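Please review this one.

:::
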Amino acid sequence: MIDEKTADIIDSALSACFIEPKGDPNRSHLYPAACMAKILIDSGYTIDENFLSSLQGDNMCSHDFMKEVEDDFK
């Protein structure tokens, strides 16, 4: 389990992946976001449903980045 401060830092970085690209995140933002989301989820934290949906295929790439991260780090 990660500590609360680390989780907050990761959550802030995850949010930035969606905010910084002005609402049009692409692969270079979504794959790192999925990595951070996976860390938080595996540590027992809840991810914003809108972010999670975007990472699971509801994105401009129509790609499930969460599945990709899970496959990459089996």
Q: What stands out?
A: Residues 4-72 form one domain.
